[in-house]
């Protein structure tokens, strides 16, 4: 949360000369913005480390008071501290009146050395990582509901961030880690983060109500854009066939692979030739399928001559074989 403090807009004499204006005035755009996190180089935290100026008069003010000491900095490299808004206000009280507003968080995090990566840069890197992870032909990827840190410190100027996921990411809420890596490639910190990924693709859907066992013909299928974040399961790819529906489906319902099956090569009750294929003899008799099955599967059939049941392998739609 940022605190806005209204300050008088009377310019001190140095600013007056630099700006070249004889009349002081308040401009709504004039302001100093204090960062949430900064890195310092040296023994002191000064105003120039903390603030960014917006507006001509505020810029002149900051140039003049950039070296204003706010606090002692951490001594060791990588050392951290927190500055409260009260301490920053107390330091500013020693300067001239601000020409505009002061926007300041309730506390500022300070690190000695290194660099700070702002939230906007973290978000951009996360976006690129997720866009690449979900790159699919014809897919439209949208990322929302980021849960990321506002900033991250790296220990040295050449330090960087690396994204890492321990599992295969699926559309929807995805969790992964941001690793803070030093110049030597050593991971010094891991942060758990997440975002919600929408992946819009074209998928097959039922063009009309389909009953269980319906053979899928081209006119029974239509293609719609669906968000895979809300698609639960593998989508039927339509390859091969012929196919039929394993359970009833409504109009517009996504056709999942688990709800589609190959049309059986041999149907229950159909007449087939039962072939006994031995080393020295081959016999062929009429039979009736007691089960349905696909090519290469074994089903129970009845020998119509002996009325005995045997297990036979489906060779084609008209033939089953016993070895």
Short key terms for the protein model shown above:
5-stranded antiparallel β-sheet, disordered N terminus, 5-stranded mixed barrel, single chain, 5 helices, 14% helix, 323 residues, mainly beta, Type Iii Antifreeze Protein Isoform Hplc 12, Thiol Ester Dehydrase, Chain A
Write a structural description.
The protein is mostly beta strands. The protein folds into 4 domains: 2-113, Thiol Ester Dehydrase, Chain A (Roll); 117-199, no CATH class; 201-262, Antifreeze-like/N-acetylneuraminic acid synthase C-terminal domain (Type Iii Antifreeze Protein Isoform Hplc 12, Alpha-Beta Complex); 271-322, Roll (SH3 type barrels). The chain has 5 helices and 23 strands. It has helices at residues 13-19, 47-50, 56-65, 85-92, 119-133, and strands at 2-6, 31-34, 37-40, 44-46, 51-54, 69-72, 80-84, 101-105, 107-112, 115-118, 140-147, 151-154, 160-164, 172-181, 187-206, 221-227, 243-245, 260-262, 271-277, 282-289, 298-303, 309-316, 319-322. The strands form 7 sheets. Strands 11, 13, 14, 15 and 16 form a 5-stranded antiparallel sheet that branches. Strands 19-20-21-22-23 form a 5-stranded mixed barrel. Strands 1-8-2-5 form a 4-stranded mixed sheet. The longest helix is centred in the middle third of the chain and has 15 residues, at 119-133. It is elongated.
């Amino acid at each position: 949360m940022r605190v806005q403090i209204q300050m008088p807009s009377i310019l001190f004499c140095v600013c007056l000369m630099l700006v070249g204006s004889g009349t002081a005035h308040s401009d709504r755009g004039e302001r100093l913005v204090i960062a949430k996190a900064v890195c310092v180089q040296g023994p002191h935290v000064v105003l120039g480390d903390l603030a960014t100026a917006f507006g001509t008069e505020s810029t002149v003010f900051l140039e003049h008071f950039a070296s204003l000491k706010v606090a002692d900095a951490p001594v060791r490299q990588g050392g951290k501290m927190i500055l409260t808004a009260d301490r920053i206000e107390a330091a500013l009280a020693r300067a001239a009146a601000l020409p505009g507003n002061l926007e300041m968080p309730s506390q500022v995090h300070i690190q000695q050395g290194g660099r700070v990566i702002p939230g906007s840069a973290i978000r951009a890197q996360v976006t690129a990582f997720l866009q690449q992870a979900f790159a699919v032909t014809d897919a439209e990827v949208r990322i929302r509901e980021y849960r990321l840190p506002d900033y991250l410190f790296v220990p040295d100027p050449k330090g960087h961030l690396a994204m890492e996921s321990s599992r295969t990411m699926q559309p929807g809420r995805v969790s992964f880690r941001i690793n803070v890596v030093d110049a030597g490639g050593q991971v010094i910190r891991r942060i758990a983060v997440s975002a919600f990924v929408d992946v819009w693709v074209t998928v097959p859907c039922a063009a009309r109500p389909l009953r269980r066992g319906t053979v899928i013909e081209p006119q029974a299928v239509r293609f719609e854009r669906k968000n895979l974040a809300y698609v639960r399961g593998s989508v039927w790819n339509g390859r091969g066939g012929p196919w039929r529906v394993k359970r009833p489906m409504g109009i517009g319902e996504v056709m999942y692979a688990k709800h589609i099956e190959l049309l059986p090569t041999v149907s229950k009750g159909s007449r087939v030739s039962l072939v006994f294929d031995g080393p020295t003899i081959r016999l062929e008799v009429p039979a009736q399928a007691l089960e349905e099955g696909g090519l290469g599967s074994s089903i129970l059939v009845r020998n119509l001559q002996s009325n005995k049941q045997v297990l036979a392998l489906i060779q084609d739609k008209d033939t089953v074989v016993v070895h």
